[in-house]
Write a structure and sequence with these properties.
Ubiquitin-like (UB roll); Fumarate Reductase Iron-sulfur Protein, Chain B, domain 2; 5-stranded mixed β-sheet; 12% strand; 3 iron, 4 sulfur cluster binding; 4Fe-4S; electron transfer activity; 4 iron, 4 sulfur cluster binding; Succ_DH/fum_Rdtase_Fe-S
Length: 248
């Protein structure tokens, strides 16, 4: 395939960025989107030009690092995939593809297509953990009965990889889906009840502190989420937050 790529180039967080056009040829449908960018970068390096900087790690849809806005959609036109799982067969010969970093105040651009998503880490650090009894009187986790539906819902919430697609898809750049998934995976289990009150209050407070917007129930976050995290988690977090606020 022959393609025209319009890629956001920005030297650093303070520089003014712009879209630059790159023609590319010889792209196969079985290539992943990141492999296509590898081909482009090899060409740029051979020409003595600076390669396009983009984030990636596992390339298996697990790490959540490959945060790209492709033709206006987080992770591109396919569903339930990350950018590294997006294949070039989703595009046609002669297409123009616009590639940008995720756009959000809380995700400042570091360089080119790489954004700083450590705001997610700070939200997690604010309460995304459980107490562990290491006094010598530990209890076997398998001895604690857990309702099957609660266990399944908790597991589904825990599949969130923190990629930030929910934020990029939201017109308000809200992190409610991410935060609610992290709250839900603990709130649904007996092990998570110890810090339940502090957890939701602290994580929501940190989310607001980071500058994320509010949720207006548009639903774009769930549609674009590569792991299909449900909006039900936001409703659950709202209930947890109300309950915690009344206790406080």
């Amino acid at each position: 395939m022959k393609l025209t790529l319009k890629i956001w180039r920005q030297k650093n967080s303070k520089a003014k960025g712009e879209l630059k056009t790159y023609p590319i040829d010889g792209i196969e449908g079985d290539m992943s989107f990141l492999e296509m960018l590898d081909v482009l970068n090899e060409e740029l390096i051979n020409k003595g030009e600076e390669p396009v900087v983009f984030d990636h790690d596992c390339r298996e849809g697990i790490c959540g690092a490959c945060s790209l806005q492709i033709n206006g959609e987080p992770h591109g036109p396919d569903r339930l995939v990350t950018t590294c799982q997006l294949h070039m067969r989703m595009f046609n010969d002669g297409d123009t593809i616009v590639i940008e970093p995720f756009r959000a105040k809380a995700f400042p651009v570091i360089k080119d297509l790489v954004v700083d998503r450590t705001s997610f880490e700070r939200i997690q650090q604010a309460g995304g953990y459980v107490s562990v009894n290491t006094s010598g009187n530990t209890i076997d986790a398998n001895a604690i009965p857990v309702n099957k539906q609660d266990a399944d819902d908790s597991f589904n919430a825990a599949t969130c990889i923190g990629c930030g697609a929910c934020v990029a898809a939201c017109k308000n750049a809200s992190a409610m889906l991410f935060t609610s998934a992290k709250v839900s995976q603990f709130a649904l289990l007996p092990q998570g009840k110890v810090e339940a009150t502090e957890r939701v209050l602290n994580m929501v407070a940190q989310m607001d502190k980071e500058g994320f917007g509010n949720c207006t129930n548009t639903g774009a976050c769930e549609i674009e989420c590569p792991k299909g995290i449900s909006l039900e988690n936001i409703a659950r977090m709202n209930r947890e937050y109300l309950s915690a606020s009344l206790k406080g």
